[in-house]
Amino acid sequence: KAGVTQTPRYLIKTRGQQVTLSCSPISGHRSVSWYQQTPGQGLQFLFEYFSETQRNKGNFPGRFSGRQFSNSRSEMNVSTLELGDSALYLCASSRDNQETQYFGPGTRLLVL
Amino acid sequence: DQQVKQNSPSLSVQEGRISILNCDYTNSMFDYFLWYKKYPAEGPTFLISISSIKDKNEDGRFTVFLNKSAKHLSLHIVPSQPGDSAVYFCAVSYGGSQGNLIFGKGTKLSVKP
Fold first, then answer.
1. Is B36 an interface residue toward A (CB < 8 Å)?
2. What is the DSSP letter of A39?
3. Of A11, A66, A73, A96, whose CB neighbour count within 10 A is largest?
């Protein structure tokens, strides 16, 4: 069974631009969560989607948004990028949110 | 304020010995506790978990202990192997939901041959 895939793996953007990251969950998984990992803050929860609905949201500004499609694939978008948005963005999927999450390899975003 | 703390950023252990990784949490409402392992350039990999109704869970070389009164969680690896060298994160959740985990900042374990 294929694992969680994330595209792209690496991305360089400049301040003020926007970016869209993509996540394909494990087949049969309907819950997708997004996390941001930075050296200073560690792994922080961004949001969780289940059946195309945002179920939980972390403490991030409105510049961070996401969505989930009917095939459970998910995207997250960051608008008006800031230097502090440079991070590893991780996606995790599970059958539902009561079960273990499996993480993808992440997308490393560098904002210059 | 950090709800989950891993106070040791790093730990070095000799191969074959026991590795003990610690984690403290602040909220007694947390009811599910997990450990993840992360290698560079990879996402975290689930290791072992424990619910608040238990105080110990074993899986091969890995054992997780939960002390609810102290709000303390630990992971024991016995015997430690060089391939165990990685960053270990503890994570917590509440209400049975694992969709929005709260992570500690991680402990880098180095197992020396």
1. yes
2. T
3. A66
Average pLDDT over residues A63-83: 97
Contact B99 A31 (CB under 8 A): yes
Task: Give the model's pLDDT for residue B67.
Answer: 97
Higher pLDDT, A34 or A41: A34
A43/B89 Cβ within 8 A: yes
The answer, for A43 touching chain B at a CB cutoff of 8 Å, is yes
The 10 Å CB-count burial string (b at 16+, else e) for A89-109 is: bbbbbbeebeeebbbbbbbbb
Neighbours of B20 (CB within 10 A): 16
Give yes or no for residue A1 having a pLDDT over 70: no
User: Which residues, 6 or more positions from A106, have their beta carbon under 8 angstroms from its beta carbon?
Assistant: A6, A9, A37, A88, A89, A90, A91, B42, B43
Virtual torsion, Cα A29, A35, A37, A42, nearest 10 deg: -110
Compute the nearest-CA separation of B21 from chain A (Å).
17
Residue A33: closest CA among A74, A79, A65? A74
Residue A60: how many other CB atoms lie within 10 Å = 16
Q: Count of alpha carbons within 13 Å of B33, Cβ hemisphere only?
A: 34
Between chains, do B44 and A48 touch, taking CB under 8 Å as contact?
Answer: no
Return d(Cα B109, Cα B66) in angstroms, integer. Answer: 20
How close, in Å, is residue A45 to chain B by CA atoms? 6
* Cβ–Cβ contact A100 with B under 8 A: yes
